[in-house]
Amino acid sequence: MKRSPHLRLRRPLAAAAAAAGLLGLLTAAPDPSGSSSAVPVAASENTATVFYYTKTRDWSAYNLHYAPDGGPWTAVPGVRMEAACTDWVKKTVSLGSSPGLAATFTDGSGVWDNNSGKNYALGTGTITVKDGVVAHSDPCATTGTDPSPSPTSSPSTGNTASVYYSTTTVGWSTTNLHYQPAGGSWTAVPGVGMEAACTGWVKRSVDLGAATKMQAAFNNGNGVWDNNNGSDYTVPAGVSTVKDRTVTKDAANPCAAEPADTEAPTAPTAVKAEADGVSVVLTWEPSTDNRSVTKYQVTRTGGSKGTTVSDVGSTVFSDAGLEERTAYSYTVKAVDAAGNTSAASAAARATTGTRPPAAAQGTPLGTDPRKDPIYFVLTARFYDGDAGNNRGGGQDVKSGNAANNDPMYRGDFKGLVNKLDYIKGLGFSAVWITPVVLNRSDYDYHGYHGYDFYKVDGRLESAGASYQDLINAAHAKGMKIYQDVVYNHSSRWGAKGLYTPTVYGVRDDQWSWYYDERNEGFEYDGVSVETKSGKSYYNGDLWSTAEPSGNTCLNWGKPTGSTSAEGYRIHNCQWPNPTSGMFPKEYYHNCWLGNWEGEDSRSCWLHEDLADFNTESAPVQNYLIGAYDKYIDMGVDGFRIDTAVHIPRTTWNRRFLPAIQERVTQRFGAGAAKNFFVFGEVGSFVNDKWNRGSVNHSAQFFTWKERKEYSADDTRAALEMYDYEEKLGTGAQPASRNAFLDGNAYHTPDHSEFSGMNVIDMRMHMNFGDADNAYNNGKDSDDSYSDATYNVVYVDSHDYGPNKSSERYAGGTDAWAENMALMWTFRGIPTLYYGSEIEFRAGKKIDCGPSCPLATTGRAYYGDHLAGTVEASGFGQVSSATGEVAGTLGRPLVKHVQRLNEIRRAVPALQMGQYSTEGITGRMAYKRRYTDAASKVDSFALVTVTGAAAYTGIPNGTYRDAVTGDTRVVADGKLSVAAPGKGNMRVYVLDLGGSNAAPGKVGAAGPYLK
């Protein structure tokens, strides 16, 4: 599950507290008026004054071509715009009763800015359109008696405050100054527009009258604020600078010593256009500039839509949804911060093909999951194959990701397809990916805030690299895809198609920055930008001033006695909350979790970002079963189940697990269903066998069927089961011998009481600070699982390191090698979190939410280590590699894991075998055997990790070590092995001849296995 650790135990006490928590994340401006309920009154006729930025266009004329919402378009080329102030033109148009307008801009001679083919959707009032970004401010406005926005001008009366604001770390295209002279009133939100001063600085002068200082905040006109962490800025009269939250009084003009930048960047070179179906990917070499290039302008000609100009922040442009079999030409210009524009590049041309058909549905590989070591990736943080679907979201600036040019949604399926050979070259044949469903939250890149469970998130897909394409590409390489799925909760905004709450929201002088204007024609999909707000995280469909039909939320819209951290009045029903009546009990539970090991952990919300499904309700069950049937049909090979412990075992055993089996059987047959791998996250964060003595909260509990009949009502049955099993206690739970040998013999396991859910081995995970400790704790629990040979074993993950650490494992390379040697030879399925093969981000905090950049955490972007090409000739074998990835593949733990995978793949006993320590002395020493009469496989192996071992009572015969090739002949049932050293091991395999002959030395000696 993907809750931020520092929020994990937070339990909001009321709707007011929950709303305040949100606003603490979305830094906003102070209350400009002190009013708690001001609501703007609509005029009898709406108008829009549209300002358009000219500096980067350099057209000879500017026309606004528009249509009021619901009305006709103007005749081409539209109406002429007039000069407003330096670098701006404007036009005021009447809209009648329409709430907004659709618009494009043109020079009147065939060159258009129509927002890359989507037009601009604009609201009413004052609107700026600057380089594709829509904001709400007047860039030419003056205030008081100050006739000029220049900080160097003098006011006609009173005191003047001239403010320079540094935009280096915020990256805004428009900046507004919202201020209050001491003893005076706040300006109307968003304040007054600031103008460019020099690279990295904007400026504004305001008349303070008799006041000697003012309170101030800054914003981008679209709801993103810098208000000094809620304290506002105090700015004195005179010249001041504001940089990095520091106000400098009587400051020198930061632009005075900087000569005007009149030098244009060099023209982009090596422009290449490659068509893929009806998409074109354009790439070029970066331009140079005397200061810095801030963006590129791509001009496209061809097709029936005429000429279009698009702004791009990188040297890659993905142009999708083009016409079939059509020739297109592209040129690129570079633009610097001063607006200097380079000459156009040489044209690059491409002709589209036909629209590709949807990828054919896949078929699961259907083999025993224990054969397949797992590589776990956060898809959005692994490798970026398509920059066109990158999105930063509402926390991009606050988190610091924007300053790092590191949007939270960065990696994608195209990147994963491109690097499947890297994963295969490491030796992994299964890839566990984070949830794929459309998410909706302030910080949802990891996928655990599902909104539309029937739709794949567009921020992960690209033309030719859909989710289906990924599944098919993996299968073509003999690799499985395990999809992370969430049954326990949706996003705070509900689940589309089941229930989505409407919250109270009023776009008054306090809240207009947050509640986006409604656009009836726009549907949130995570990737498309709604142009009225300029956001891909648009929320105009979520709120209403009028009480919705059928509302169940108590005291709809009434002001509470509380304010947000920024001083805004909070209203009832303003924020999703389980105790307000906003979420119907038929679909959601209506309480906050109080005890993580109590009954309420299955029936209450974990966090305000995770709306807890009423999974005992038939409509919810049907919604989720139907959604996940879709992905089963696509051919995924298994499900990793998030937050499994927070759903009653009875519900799993009655509803969800049988539904999975039935669907796989129906689509692909009983054999595929048997090997469709389901493994659950049952968060047991203690070092004992049973989680604080509670069987209902222990991982092994979920691997068993029910032992008695309960009520036909699922809610009552859950309570009956909980009470029954807790009273029985740990000593009366079922036991299993499925993981253990009978002497030296393998026996057919008894899975008659298996629930259908395997689990992550939380006890080994929690104890992996030391391999010995993990091994001994693992052995101690194995009789309580249905079959521990199916346990998923890892050291750390996207949530925790060992001992519930919030940092990625940092025990050192030798300790990592030792942990891996144990994981790859002991019972269970070894699993590695992305980048651990190079100790990526070792010791770094795994998750800090939006309070720090992702680049500083354990969820940093990994793609820089994968740049270049790689081809795998087999599992654990790389035939060629170039660029940075070649260096990555040369790292010591990479070599170690490659050989471990080769050895494990060559010895069936290490994959599927039962184990025993009978007659064995040694730290981590055991024997394993797997026998299958149907396939005539019989494999017996003796293993010791790090330390010396002595084996007695073993079968006589010839043994060959898979690590060194050493051969031993046993005639008296005894074999002794010297200590191989930390991270090293010995695997003596009994040579049984024919297809069961011992493989001898597997692979080449490496840094640890030697």
Can you characterise this structure?
This protein is α+β, with helices and mostly antiparallel strands and 1010 residues long. 15% of the residues lie in helices and 26% in strands. It contains 15 helices and 54 strands. The strands form 13 sheets. Strands 2, 3, 6, 7, 8, 23, 24, 26 and 27 form a nine-stranded mixed beta sheet that branches. Strands 41-40-39-32-29-28-43-42 form an eight-stranded parallel beta sheet. The chain has a six-stranded antiparallel beta sheet with strand order 46-48-49-54-51-52. Helix 12 links the parallel strand 42 (792-793) and strand 43 (829-833). It starts with 14 loop residues before the first helix and ends in a 20-residue tail after the last strand. The model is unreliable at 2-43 and 143-156 (pLDDT under 50).
